[in-house]
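Worked Example 4.2. Read the sequence first, then its structure tokens.
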Amino acid sequence: MKSSLGLFVLASLFFISCGQKQKEVAKVETEKSVPLVAIKTTEEITIDQQTYTSELVVDGIDIPWGMTWLPDGSMLVTERSGTLYHVKNGEKTAIKNVPEVFARNQGGLLDVTLHPKYEQNGWVYITYSIVDKNEKGSHTALIRAKLEDNALVSIEKLYQGSPNVKTAHHFGSRIVFDAAGYVYFTIGDRGKRDENPQDITKDGGKVYRLHDDGRIPEDNPFVGEKDAKTAIFSYGHRNPQGMAVNPRTGQIWVHEHGPRGGDEINPVTKAVNYGWPVITYGINYSGTTITDEKARDGMQQPLYYWVPSIAPSGMAFVTSDIYPELKGHLVVGSLKFQYLELVVLTENDKVAKREKLLDGIGRVRSVRQGPDGHIYVGVDGKGVYKMVKNSGEKQVVKTTKETETKAENTEEIEQVVTTFTKVSDVSKKEIEASFKRGKTVYTNVCAQCHMGNGEGVAKAFPPLAKSDWLTDKVVESIRSIKYGLKGEITVNGVKYRGIMSPLGLNVKQIADVMNYTSNSWGNTTENFYTPKKMSEVKKK
């Protein structure tokens, strides 16, 4: 009873504080806009589009987060682990002098774009996760630099989120310029949903607007507000990983990588609160409730939301005559279902239906329309592809030897003989404490891919429920959590191919999450995993 009462009081304080923050910013004059009525996605996609197929542009890039084009038609592509590639004629060259990035879990080298007047000024804009050595934790930063002899020079930091956060997820981030020359970028809530998105004195869960040199525009909505982060343009966002300019209206659109259910499309309006986490159509990855509220006065409804979630990443409006039937509509990458989604829009920019493009291509991380008019998609574990007309014949994507190398197959990991502590030798209190901590780690870090019930996602994320990966391949399981994995694995007789970045967990967290998952959802083990044993499992 006391526990329930305590939770009620905490929840009440949270919503009261959000209401107070609303009162604090209510005096800001917002741009006039028609209130949106949220429209839910159809349960099943309308059409599986077979008109288009993919053509490989460059391979060997594990997580191609962002891409842009230089005036000569060559590309810059970010690899989340920290490499910026210059790609020309299918060959890639690593750019030198890229800032050190915090490449853990969802952090790393993120988006890249050029200044609209690049040919006159040479500025390249980049977002990345940064570790400030004077403060524990990390955040998202925006820099600009020039490119000379395949190296970044004249690097200027335009913005760095603060205060730092010790989590390693929800960094955002995308960058776009509007027609007036302002630069917009996003920072996710940094895993601090109850602290950052609704607080304009803290970075995270926001869309930002700056002059191209990093100065704060005088008409930004919170200029003059006490302690406010004056770069903020809008707030109440979760983790915007797609951003594009609507060519008809010039308005910035973002999509939110939501919780379980509740991925959203949001046209961005100055000073508007998009509600996260006070209102949402989603639930926790574990299946528990985030909030009972789906609407509240002073908080904007999404233009559209997906249930089930597609795990969106990357977004572009199609303006090219190469795709006449797609022109004027929106394309969005799906990490979860591994396709490019066509979001068909009406003349007044409402969502009419969905169509599936490039089905099965892989985890689509980034989407851009190139200067040649083609749509390009970055795919985890593969590289960058161009969408082209399907000739009618079944096409097999050819990759170079680099991406087909069997040495990358995580099932060929050397065997390590390790003797683990037995459950029978550990106290019940210690076991229960480890399980409890492990459940928290799983919910915060793993459940967004493998689901709260451990069932995973067909063709994308292997199940952990009744999983032989956990019971028969213990060392491989531990190694994948510590160091990530890349290539093909087999779980319960089904092959999965892709990439998982290191999760950034310490050995105690790894031991706890192994104990929890190895004894949940039908899994059982006689082992009890300890930090000492986790430290003994080395990278191959």
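Now turn to a second chain, presented in exactly the same format:
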Amino acid sequence: MPGNKNSSWGDVFAGFTLWAVFSAQAIAYSRLAHATPVAGLVTAIAGALLYSALGSSLRVSIGPAGGIAAIVGASVAGFEGENLGAAISALTLMTAGFLFLAGIARISFLQRLFPSPVFVGYLAGIGITILIGQGHDLVSNGTLALVIGLTSIAGVLVLKRIAPKIPGPFVILTIATLLSAKLGWQEHGVPVIGSALGKFGSVTLPTGLGTSGWIALFGPALSLALLVYVDALANAEALTEEGDPELEPIHDYFALGSVSLGAGLFGGFVAGCSSSRSIVAIRAGARTRKAGLLAGGMLVLTAFSVVRVIQPLPLSALAGVVFVAALDLIEVRKLLGFRKNRSVDFRIAILTLVSVIIGGTMVGVAVGVLAALAEAMRRGMTPHRSVLALRAGHYYIDLDPHSLPVVDGVLVYRFGTGLFFGNAEDFLADMKTVAASKNPNLRSVVVNADSLGIPDATAREALMKSQRLLSREGVQLVFGNARAPLRAALNGDFTLIDEERFIHDVEKFRRAS
């Protein structure tokens, strides 16, 4: 439990582990963002300290994230020289601004726009894009650089397999740096980080971009704010354990915005959630906010004192570490699960994946969300319509005009989704089918209205037509199991029965079976 001695020591060990993972990812992901290693460390410090202090989740780790860093890099690719750093800072500050605005507006529906297939497809598309880029880096700098990169990939994968609690990327990058310094790999043509490390500790404000530069970054910043929030919230919900404080989605807008604000002011880039880093911290024993705060403090010391030690670090080793991180973004099991359980989810995920690779993140996400909304509309326009069966239990079956299950003059009908203009004709068509059956025993159609929703004008007209159509056949249309808003909407024009009467009618079917 949080607060006991074992938990405190677990947080200490987890803090050291987080520091090592943060350090490796900060250096590796800074390349994806077209930023300096110090910028990556600033992003890690902002995430470790500010989210640990302000965030509602005890489990997620906010800081440099592969997918977010890749989007940052793609967004600022058109800027060069001094404008590149200014563009990264501007993008990060704008992202923070959008997060703050969303929190002030108390927007609570954003995560609903990202169903799992879209999110999995987006991450996989980002992962494949990174793999292509890092693969090119691995093969374009000579044989020795390729061997170093492949060895780094193998080393991270092996450590991940046999010792998951050990921060494999940190270990591999440390070994690569020491060997490079000892063996003089730079003299053998292997590119290294060198002296372009960046400066730590000074406030940086974006200048010199001009109006066109800010406008160019507006869309990417909005997309990043959306992705950062949705990703963090999804991971927080997945990793929350029993006894943890309740998540506060609105509050986290401000926590995440504060992270990007701090990163942007001190030369970092947009921070996001790393699920792999979060899981490593949990496995290492993190139970409270102390682990993140300890890691953040150690990162500050690292940025001030040790960063120049990494000058001999081979870029191919970094590429290898990023390559493995990109593999983690491609969740093959989830994709196969979509294909097995519901093929349309698989198609949406693949469409999102391909769109991200071809058109970039914003295009890919937009295509995925539109595809998911189109599928939701299609499902709403083709609802499952059924009637209560003459079977033991509570079973609904498809409507068959030749065999209507009528008990004591009652047919119980259910429309499987909200009634609106897109599916109102289906309801009317079913009532026409019932009327055309000319069943001599039928006296009333009881609509189980639990999922009917409040009908719009078109749907209401369809209900009126259905009522008149059945009335001509001597059949009454009544509504039961209706929630209060629907009862208020239908009252006066349609016949409503109370809960007791509806249950009584359903019980007739059970007794008849």
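Notes for the reader: Residues 210-239 form the longest helix (30 residues). Strands lie at 62-63, 272-273, 385-388, 396-398, 410-415, 444-448, 476-480, 495-496.
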